[in-house]
Every structure is written in C-alpha cells, then in structure tokens.
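Quick one:
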Amino acid sequence: MKTDQIQSFVMRYLEAEKCDILEKHPAYVTVKLSPSADRELTYRPYYWTLVERTGATPETMTCTFVFDPEAHKASLTSANSTATSPVSSDLQAAGSTAAQTTANPTGTTAPAAPGAPAQQDSILGRYFGFVPTQMTARVPKDEVTFGSRRLEQIFQAVRNKGRFVHLYEHYKPEHQPRSSPMSTTAYETWLQVNFKVEFACDMKRSEIHSLGFHMVTGEICENFQERLLNKRLSPRIPAQVYMIPDKFTLPRAVIYLEQYLETILRNYDHSWAAEAKLRLEDELQRIRSYYEPLILHAELEKKHEIDTQYSKRRQEIDWQFRPRIQISVINCGLFHLHTGNPAMN
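Output:
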C-alpha cells in the first residue's frame, strides 16, 4: 500500500469511529479517540474496568498518527526554526502555570482568575481529592506505515467489526403520487459472502469473489460488491417498508454459494498445479540424492539423527511446493434492497 492509500484508509476508520480530528497535516493527523476506538487501539484494560465499575465519564487518549515520517520530521524542523523567543515564552508559560496552581497555607488552592477555565473533573480528583498540580497530557506518536504494528492493529479492528453486517437500502422514489402518501415499498433480501481464493505452491496468487444469493428466488449474482457501491445503506430500516418472506434458510444459501464457487474453480486452467508437481518431484529428488548416501554410510548412532532431519526436510519441501487451493471467508452480510416493483397501498 502507498502512503496516500494508508492515509485514506485510516481517515475513513477514524471518521467511522467518530473520533475528533484535532490537527490534520499531509504527513500526520492528531485525533482524540472515541471510547470505542480507545478500547481497540490503546491497551488500558484496568482503566476501562474502573470506568465500567464506577460509571465515570471516560477520558480517551489523544494520539498522533504519522503517515510520512520524513515529511513529519521536516515539518517539526521548520516549526522550530520559525518560532520566536522560545526560551522566554517557556518561562512565561511556566510562571503563569505556577501562579495559577499556588496553594494557600490552609491547603486550599487560590481562587482562579476571572475568565479562567474551570478545571475538568477527573476520576482521580473525584475519588482521591483535588490534585493542584496541572499535568500536561502526553500525546503518543505512532508511525502508521505499511507493515507497522499500529496499522496492523487498525486492520484487525476493521476485520473484527466488519465480519458481518446487516443493512437496509435507503430508497426514495423519484415520483411519488400525492394521492397515496401511505404507500409501502417491497424489499428483498440478499446474502453476500466475500470469498478469498488462494492458489498456493512455491508461488501464490489470490482472488476475491463477491457472491450474492437472493433469499427468495435463489439467484446467484457475481461481483455483488460492485452492485452495492451506488446504493445508500443504513443499519436502520426505512419507514413504510415491508419485507418479502425468504424461501431459503441461511445454511442452505451458504451451501449453494459454496457449490457455485466450486463450479467456477473447476473451469479454471490448472496447468499451474501440474507444473508445481514437477517442481516438487525435482526438489524431492535433489534432497533424496543428498540424504540417502549420508544415511547409507553413516555410523549406526548417527543414522537416526540424519533420518529425522531427512524426514523433516521432506515435509518442508512438500508443504512449500505441493499445489493447493485454499478458500476462506473475508466477510458477509444481509442486505435488504428495493425490489424495483411498484409501491403498494
């Protein structure tokens, strides 16, 4: 993945999780995480256990995700070089902070100046008393590049949440007669399954097959994901809609989709598998010509060790070169779409 693709994917994830974008730059983004994103991206199980038990308002973390480390360093260098009087400004800020947080001899803090923002309530302050020291929040920075731990964590969060969806089409007729304002619209149900097919040997090739199954007629539609791209989908059922009853159960629909995918794969050219078997036999012959003389002329106490090594090597070569087709399910969903039939009164 390229940098712009990673940035687009991460921004879509942050917007879907309803995170607050504090600063956006071509090289990085600073966000205040939503509670759901904080649970997935930050490892704070004890904090969230405390929040759940006490019912307190959660205080989520603020993070900076760096998409282009070189451009991010250049922006920091440019910002530091254009800053004016950094030492004096730091001293003024420190003096202002100290003046605001100075405590009275009785142990209570001095009253805040008019117009100064009130200190936010926190969990520690609520249960352990007022803490007079003002702490600067730490903003962790993570590189979100291809292969990074943070990007893989976001991928896993998306996979977990998008494994199954249940959505309705928001359909609005272009010309609705005024005489029948209470007309209802018929919706039909489709089961979509996105399969990942891997053709594996010492080389690997993968394909994605998006299949849709009509739960009423049994029709199977290929490239079903493309059919959904131009539709407005929502998890809430629209008003004045009735569902056509399904004639197929979900287990039966899955069986039909698997049989259909198997028929597609049978019509493929499988010459790659025959070529992989030839490479497998050639590699087995090569290691056979190396290990068999060793076992034949080895001492008795060493024969078992060499034979074990030979057997392990054969298993590795067989796993690497033997052709196979692996099928897995990426995600699936139930979609209730407009039938295209006229509305009913």
